[in-house]
C-alpha cells in the first residue's frame, strides 16, 4: 500500500480560510460506506440521519493558545515556539523555529520578559524541551501572550478565538482543534439529545503530528505521533450500552475514533468493550483495519496522502473515499479545518 495511493488533486482556492458565521450551516456530504453512494445536504440536517438509540462520541479537548512569538535576548532574533505537550509544571515539548538558533542552553524571551524559556534538551525528531520561568499563573500568561495554533494552510488571521474551539471544549491541552466538532451548536446538540441520541465525551489532546505529512513511500512504514487520551466510566458505560442495545456508535472526528479504538478490548464473550482508562496512543488506522467499536464517522475533508484520509479509507474503502472527494471538489466544497463535513454512514437515507 503506497502513500501515493491516497493522493487527490485539490485546487488551492477550495481550502477554507475562514469559519462560517453559523457553525451548522456548512455543507454535508453523506457517504454510504458500503455502496459508495453519495448525497449532498446541510450540516444542521445531520440530525435526520441519526436514530434514537445511537451514540455520538465527541472529543472535549480544548485548544490552548500554543503559538508563542519571542526573541533571543542576546541577538534580538525572532523566535517561534509552539507548545506540543506539557511534561511537568514548567517544562514542555515544543516545536521551535528557526531550529538552528535554538540549541541546548539557548534562551528566549516573550512579552518583554513576562515569560522566559530555556532549551534544556534537543530530541531526536528535532523537537525541543523548554523550561519556562514566570511569575503568577502560566495559563494566564499564555492566554495573554499566545496565539491560536492554526494549521499552516490557513493564511488568514482568526478574528474570534472561540471559532477554533468546539462549543463543548472543556479540558485544556490541544495544539489543534478536533475540527469535525466545529460544526455543532449547543442548540443542535440539544435537539439531537431530545431525539434520543446519547452524547458521550472522550478527551484526546491533539498534537501537531496530525498535520505532519507521511514521508515514507510505503504506508505501513509510517510512525504515528503519540497523543494523550482519557475515557471516564460514564462514557464507557454509555458506549457499551449502545452496542448492547443495537445502536450505532458514531464518532465525531478522527480523534474520537482513535480514542475509543485505542482503548477497546475483547471480553470473555468475544465482544469488544470499553472501560474507563487513560494513557498515550499512537494507533495508526489504515485500510485493512477492522473497527472494534466505531460504526459511523462525522469528519471533515482531509489533506491528500495524510494519515487521516487513510483512516476514513479504512472505514469506507479507498475508492469510495477518493470518488467522494473528487465529487466534493467538483461541487466546490470547502476543505480542511474550517471547511465542510462528511458523514460516513451505513445508509444515506433519512
Protein described:
The chain is of the alpha/beta class and 350 residues long. The chain folds into two domains: 3-63 and 160-345, QueA-like (3-Layer(aba) Sandwich), CATH 3.40.1780.10; 67-145, Beta Barrel (Thrombin, subunit H), CATH 2.40.10.240. Helix content is 18%, strand content 28%. A nine-stranded mixed beta sheet has the order 2-1-19-18-14-3-12-13-17. It is globular.
Indicate the structural class: alpha/beta
Q: What would you report as the Rg, rounded to the nearest angstrom?
A: 21 Å
Multimeric status of the protein: single chain
Number of strands: 19
Mean pLDDT: 96
At the first level of CATH, the class of the largest domain is: Alpha Beta
CATH topology of the largest domain: QueA-like
User: H/E element string?
Assistant: EEEEEEEEEEHEHEEHEHEEEEHHE
Helical amount? 10-25%
Report how far apart the termini are. Answer: 35 Å
How many discrete structural domains? 2
Low-confidence stretches: none
The portion of residues forming beta strands comes to 25-35%
Strand order across the largest sheet: 2-1-19-18-14-3-12-13-17
Can you count the helices? 6
The coarse silhouette is globular
In CATH, the homologous superfamily of the largest domain goes by the name: QueA-like
Q: What is the makeup of the main sheet?
A: 9 strands, mixed
Reported CATH architecture of the largest domain:
3-Layer(aba) Sandwich
Amino acid at each position: 500500500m503506497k502513500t501515493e495511493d491516497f493522493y487527490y488533486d485539490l485546487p488551492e482556492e477550495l481550502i477554507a480560510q475562514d469559519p462560517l458565521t453559523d457553525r451548522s450551516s456548512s455543507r454535508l456530504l453523506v457517504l454510504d460506506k458500503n455502496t459508495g453512494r453519495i448525497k449532498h445536504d446541510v450540516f444542521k440536517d445531520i440530525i435526520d440521519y441519526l436514530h434514537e438509540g445511537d451514540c455520538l462520541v465527541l472529543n472535549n479537548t480544548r485548544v490552548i493558545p500554543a503559538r508563542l512569538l519571542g526573541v533571543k535576548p542576546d541577538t534580538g532574533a525572532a523566535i517561534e515556539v509552539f507548545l506540543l505537550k506539557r511534561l511537568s509544571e514548567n517544562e514542555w515539548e515544543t516545536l521551535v523555529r528557526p531550529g538552528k538558533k535554538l540549541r541546548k542552553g539557548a534562551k528566549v524571551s516573550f512579552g518583554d520578559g513576562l515569560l522566559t524559556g530555556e532549551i534544556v534538551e534537543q530530541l531526536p525528531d528535532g523537537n525541543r524541551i523548554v523550561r519556562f520561568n514566570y511569575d503568577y499563573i502560566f495559563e494566564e500568561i499564555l492566554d495573554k501572550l499566545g496565539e491560536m495554533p492554526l494549521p499552516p494552510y490557513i493564511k488568514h488571521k482568526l478574528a474570534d478565538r472561540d471559532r477554533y474551539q468546539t462549543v463543548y471544549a472543556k479540558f485544556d491541552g490541544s495544539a489543534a482543534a478536533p475540527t469535525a466538532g466545529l460544526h455543532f451548536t449547543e442548540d443542535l446538540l440539544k435537539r439531537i439529545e431530545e431525539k434520543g441520541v446519547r452524547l458521550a465525551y472522550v478527551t484526546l489532546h491533539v498534537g501537531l503530528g496530525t498535520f505532519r505529512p507521511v514521508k515514507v513511500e510505503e504506508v505501513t512504514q509510517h510512525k504515528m505521533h503519540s497523543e494523550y487520551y482519557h475515557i471516564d466510566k460514564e462514557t464507557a458505560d454509555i458506549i457499551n450500552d449502545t452496542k448492547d442495545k443495537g445502536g450505532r456508535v458514531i464518532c465525531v472526528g478522527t480523534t474520537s475514533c482513535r480514542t475509543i479504538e485505542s482503548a477497546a478490548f475483547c471480553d470473555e464473550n468475544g465482544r469488544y468493550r470499553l472501560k474507563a482508562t487513560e494513557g498515550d496512543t499512537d494507533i495508526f488506522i489504515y485500510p485493512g483495519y477492522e473497527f472494534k467499536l466505531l460504526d459511523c464517522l462525522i469528519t471533515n475533508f482531509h489533506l491528500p496522502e495524510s494519515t487521516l484520509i487513510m483512516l476514513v479509507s479504512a472505514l469506507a474503502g479507498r475508492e469510495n473515499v477518493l470518488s467522494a472527494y473528487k465529487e466534493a471538489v467538483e461541487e466546490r466544497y470547502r476543505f480542511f479545518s474550517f471547511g465542510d463535513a462528511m458523514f460516513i454512514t451505513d445508509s444515506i437515507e433519512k
